[in-house]
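Recap slide: Aldehyde dehydrogenase (Acceptor), sequence and predicted structure.
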Amino acid sequence: MKVHDVIDENFEELALLESLDMGSPITRTQSFRKFVLQGIMYFASQTMNCMGQTIPNSLPGRFTTMTLKAPVGVVGGIIPWNGPLMSQWWVIGAALATGCTAVIKPAEDASLTVLRTAELLIQAGVPEGVVNVVTGLGSEAGAALAAHPGVDRIAFTGSTATGREIIKASAVNMKRLQLELGGKSPDVIFADADLDKAVPGAAMAVFSNTGQVCYAGTRLFVQRSIQEAFVERLVEFGKSLKVGDPLDPSTQLGPLISERQLERVMGYVSIGGNEGASLAAGGNRLQGDLAGGYFIEPTIFSNVSNSMTIAREEIFGPVISVIPFDDADEALRLANDTEYGLGGAVWTSSVKTMTKMMHGIKAGTVWVNCYGLVDPAVGFGGYKHSGYGWKGGPQHVEGFLYQKSVCINED
Ligand code: ADP
């Protein structure tokens, strides 16, 4: 609870550091205050939940049997650059709640909020050495942490390719793993949806944080009968967004994090065009005052086919691929035709359609008439190549604990 108060008191500074470090708009980083503080409160409450059970048994004689919980030990937290201010808490919160220690390896592109948080933890009274930060390159510091025999568990968020490396490295000492990896999430709009909500919802499902979100709804399936009108409204909405200086409170979209990321996103934009998708909006690097930064226009491709590269690979930029469909069966088949399974959404006013999609989408989270909401007590996870190990909720905390059964001979 003391950690909660210290983070609360220093949140303005943390939000500013995050915006300076990774370019997310200041109004967005400031708006994380509630989520971060609620997350800390949630993990604080879980300190009361690290308990075993006394279980009746059928052993011959008089025995008491029970289970106990024990901290798993040292947890390595390898986190990405797209939102360390928030994502570090999945590791720090659960480690503090369970009595583990943590070594956090922030991404080389955005380490500042993690370093400052570590200082604030000391200020809050967390003993030195409980939460540690090691900065450095993934291939050096990250790989060393993943392979270290003194580390008992790795909580990793990042690309699927790196996730595979982490799995291999874990073999050295059977490290427990939690992996939240890439996504290519389907966002499915039916003609009977409330379009006043679905248009901004679908746009921000991708444009938020300039598309640098693992569960971004980048494959936007729109029922064919409304496709044209929907794309028109989407384009209009995209054009209304203010892209610019992250520290300007009126900015809605900041730059991409790095030149490397800009090149990657622009590369996908040209692949989209070459493979025959129609560019409905955006696609350019911003000029004028913003020419020196890694700014790109909110970009919308229409008439995309699910087999095109832009519909298959994770872009991690503000690029929406609109893919038409005729009915719920086709939508479901296309939605699940991906190697990923992190998130998905359906927008409809029909309970029948909603339940069909809710059950049918093979992803760790399905949003209905909303997108991207995450609660620390509910959590989220992945199907298929999007990883394993539930993040959030009691299961997440359980992952930081060993269970032990005890059998006591009473005679
Ligand atoms: P991205 O491509 O989005 O940067 P990465 O998976 O490369 O995603 O990075 C996520 C985190 O994993 C970062 O902190 C990065 O430094 C780290 N990382 C990268 N490569 C490795 C590796 N081989 N072993 C461990 N950590 C790594």
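Residues 78-80, 105, 107-108, 138-139, 142-143, 146, 158-159, 162, 165-166 surround adenosine-5'-diphosphate (CB under 6 Å).
The chain is about 40% helix and 20% strand.
(End of recap.)
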